[in-house]
Amino acid sequence: MNKGSIYLVGAGPGDPGLITVRGMDLVSRADVVVYDYLVSPRLVRCARDDAELIYVGKKAGKHTLSQDGINKLLVDKARTGAMVVRLKGGDPFVFGRGGEEALEAVEAGIAFEVVPGITAGVAAAAYAGIPVTHRTIASNLGLVTGHETPDKTDSDLDFEALAKWRGTLVFYMGVSNVEPICQSLTAHGLDGQTPAALVRWGTTSRQRTVVGTVDTLPAVARDSGIEPPAVIIVGGVVALREKLNWFERRPLFGRRIVVTRARTQASTLTGRLEDFGADVFEMPAIQIVPPDDDQPLRDAIDNLASFDWIVFTSANGVEGFFDALDQADLDSRALGATRICTVGPVTAERLAGRGLRPDAQPAKFVSTEIAATLAAAGDLAGQNILCPRSDLAPRDLIDALTAQGATVQDVTAYCTRPDCAGAEQVLELLADDEVHWVTFTSSSTVKNFFDAVDPAKVRAASVRLASIGPVTTQTLTDAGFTPDAQAKTHTIDGLVDAIVDCEGAEGSAS
């Protein structure tokens, strides 16, 4: 039997965007992903659909699997011939026990590779506005464990040397020992007025930073209720946070937002929200799939020359239509003199990717405006119009065009199906009042979300709802909800701007 391989991959400190390109490539190709507590769920979801995902997370006093058990698991899986990715928070070789796992691979004769990651001591400090080195303040950086193995009878930490350290000290896993660490430093001569900070959940929207001095930090940590995971930073550079605190000042920092868009399309909205500091939980209420019956679409493509207009109301419609065109061994030249109307800039951008520009594009993304825009380009009486759309698209557009005298062929270019993945987690978050916003980008996301999540649970939580436009808002209204924010321009950027504006207005009022 061929032996597999083990890859010890650093996932970074928490922000999923901080994993290396090499690390992400390995996760996407792995047969088995063995991951830790501090690894972002978004990274785990990047694994293949058929990959085996094994959680071996450790919290203080609660280990899913012992280290010996993890070592054995990695070797056993690799011996089946699998490509095993051991996804570890931070860097595998910086207080990550990656050295032990690598040695186990060597003993078993298993090929292994180490992919370094950004370590929390550097990244959490940076996201808290604390540069761990500075030319005039700190030329040295010391990374120190704040939690040594329990079976040691004597500490390996030389506090006399640490107290004389002329630079920055970062203690990992030291929250429970913050008082003895600070007392030991001052007892060996460190000035008690030296700036010090604790950063919890660094680089994530759950990040929380408290600042004091070596003398006061234990009391500050106790009063603020800071719990693991966190790092302790000691040194003059901590004073720079007052000017350099960039991450925690973002407009959506600390806000947890549920994105209900289809998984294949959620990344754009997720990325925009995260750019503003939000913590995003993806619950894809819909999934986009090919039509159950594509014969009407294929028939329309066989008769493209008979259509005066094609109206694309979504990027998915563009993709579905051109996929069918490709399957018919045709390309955009088959459209000939047929004119094209697109609804929204994203749809137009997707069309541009096919080398085409729309002949018409309404200013507003509503049915009456679409019909008026086409009518302005010429009398629609007797015009033959093709509308490749979702199987669940409402008839108002068809009715509006028909009212202008057009003959409309409404064909299914793609289907939307419910996707309830993540509903249980959303319910738990709502119960704990840990969701600040839920976003809706279509009527389908509204319907499927409330099919999976009890509306009463949403009403009971202090959560706000954001809608991409009037059609989605109407569906929310029909469900008994009034959105707290609606996009002025009915796009992803408009939706994000509406949430930011709402948060900003609330902040100004307070």
Automatic annotation (TrEMBL):
<dbReference type="InterPro" id="IPR006366">
    <property type="entry name" value="CobA/CysG_C"/>
</dbReference>
<keyword id="KW-0489">Methyltransferase</keyword>
<dbReference type="InterPro" id="IPR003043">
    <property type="entry name" value="Uropor_MeTrfase_CS"/>
</dbReference>
<dbReference type="GO" id="GO:0004851">
    <property type="term" value="F:uroporphyrin-III C-methyltransferase activity"/>
</dbReference>
<dbReference type="InterPro" id="IPR003754">
    <property type="entry name" value="4pyrrol_synth_uPrphyn_synth"/>
</dbReference>
<dbReference type="GO" id="GO:0004852">
    <property type="term" value="F:uroporphyrinogen-III synthase activity"/>
</dbReference>
<protein>
    <recommendedName>
        <fullName>uroporphyrinogen-III C-methyltransferase</fullName>
        <ecNumber>2.1.1.107</ecNumber>
    </recommendedName>
</protein>
<dbReference type="InterPro" id="IPR035996">
    <property type="entry name" value="4pyrrol_Methylase_sf"/>
</dbReference>
<keyword id="KW-0949">S-adenosyl-L-methionine</keyword>
<dbReference type="Pfam" id="PF00590">
    <property type="entry name" value="TP_methylase"/>
</dbReference>
<dbReference type="InterPro" id="IPR014777">
    <property type="entry name" value="4pyrrole_Mease_sub1"/>
</dbReference>
<keyword id="KW-0808">Transferase</keyword>
<dbReference type="GO" id="GO:0032259">
    <property type="term" value="P:methylation"/>
</dbReference>
<dbReference type="GO" id="GO:0019354">
    <property type="term" value="P:siroheme biosynthetic process"/>
</dbReference>
<dbReference type="InterPro" id="IPR050161">
    <property type="entry name" value="Siro_Cobalamin_biosynth"/>
</dbReference>
<dbReference type="InterPro" id="IPR000878">
    <property type="entry name" value="4pyrrol_Mease"/>
</dbReference>
<dbReference type="InterPro" id="IPR036108">
    <property type="entry name" value="4pyrrol_syn_uPrphyn_synt_sf"/>
</dbReference>
<dbReference type="Pfam" id="PF02602">
    <property type="entry name" value="HEM4"/>
</dbReference>
<keyword id="KW-0627">Porphyrin biosynthesis</keyword>
<dbReference type="InterPro" id="IPR014776">
    <property type="entry name" value="4pyrrole_Mease_sub2"/>
</dbReference>
<feature type="domain" description="Tetrapyrrole methylase">
    <location>
        <begin position="6"/>
        <end position="217"/>
    </location>
</feature>
<feature type="domain" description="Tetrapyrrole biosynthesis uroporphyrinogen III synthase">
    <location>
        <begin position="268"/>
        <end position="496"/>
    </location>
</feature>
